[in-house]
């Protein structure tokens, strides 16, 4: 009996027979010299919105953090376990990334759960509910709007959550100090799974503008 699902074994064989030989020099260099990505991506763990695929990134190009709803919590040095904050700290302080991109996406299950007042916890721990409560005030406001359709409310909160995470990034001293010095830039993006379109947040207005293809 294989120790991994067969489709993963097949994918690995394809990788070793195709992509790895083509990029073996790059992998050896990364192993020898370590990683030095210039960009960190904070994305949702949804299997349909993989940053490496969307940005056609090679090995070592992106430092990717994925969690439910692509959320960044506020800076809270309280001695508890903070995986998102730990990844952020490593990216900024150790890797010294120059860009942080918070990338949300359409049809996000976490956002849908935040909007659903009848959402039933999936387990007694209700980890999803607790995590998505980070954007509870915005979710309540959006959910109460009767002038938008369900789809419009979903998209609105997906984009609001990106702005929320960027605001929370600035509560981290290491981020705010470096951004103030011009050594770190924060970005927002929203990916439409159904069309492949990428919408980028305008830093001045906060509006999301569709990235035009050349």
TrEMBL record:
InterPro entries, per this entry? Beta_CA_cladeB, Carbonic_anhydrase, Carbonic_anhydrase_CS, Carbonic_anhydrase_sf
Task: Read off the Pfam families from this record.
Answer: Pro_CA (PF00484)
**Per its record, what are the GO molecular function terms?**
carbonate dehydratase activity
Q: Which major enzyme category is it? A: lyase
What is the required cofactor set for this protein?
A: Zn(2+)
Function according to Swiss-Prot or TrEMBL: Reversible hydration of carbon dioxide.
Stated family = Belongs to the beta-class carbonic anhydrase family.
- Name used for this protein in its record: Carbonic anhydrase
Natural source organism:
Mesorhizobium album
Upper taxonomic lineage: Bacteria, Pseudomonadati, Pseudomonadota, Alphaproteobacteria, Hyphomicrobiales
């Amino acid at each position: 009996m294989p120790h991994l699902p067969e489709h993963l074994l097949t994918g690995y064989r394809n990788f070793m027979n195709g992509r790895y030989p083509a990029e073996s020099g790059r992998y050896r260099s990364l192993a020898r010299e370590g990683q030095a990505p210039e960009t960190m991506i904070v994305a949702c763990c949804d299997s349909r919105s993989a940053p490496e695929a969307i940005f056609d990134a090679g090995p070592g190009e992106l430092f990717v953090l994925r969690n439910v709803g692509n959320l960044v919590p506020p800076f809270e040095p309280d001695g508890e376990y903070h995986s998102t904050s730990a990844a952020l700290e490593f990216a900024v302080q150790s890797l010294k990334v120059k860009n942080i991109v918070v990338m949300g996406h359409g049809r996000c299950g976490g956002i849908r759960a935040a909007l659903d007042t009848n959402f039933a916890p999936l387990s007694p721990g209700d980890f999803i509910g607790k995590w998505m409560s980070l954007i509870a005030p915005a979710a309540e406001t959006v959910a109460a709007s009767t002038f938008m359709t369900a789809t419009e409310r979903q998209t609105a909160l997906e984009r609001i959550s990106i702005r929320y995470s960027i605001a929370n990034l600035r509560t981290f001293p290491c981020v705010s100090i470096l951004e103030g010095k011009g050594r770190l830039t924060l970005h927002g993006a929203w990916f439409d799974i159904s069309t492949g379109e990428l919408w980028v947040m305008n830093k001045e207005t906060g509006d999301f503008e569709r990235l035009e293809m050349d």
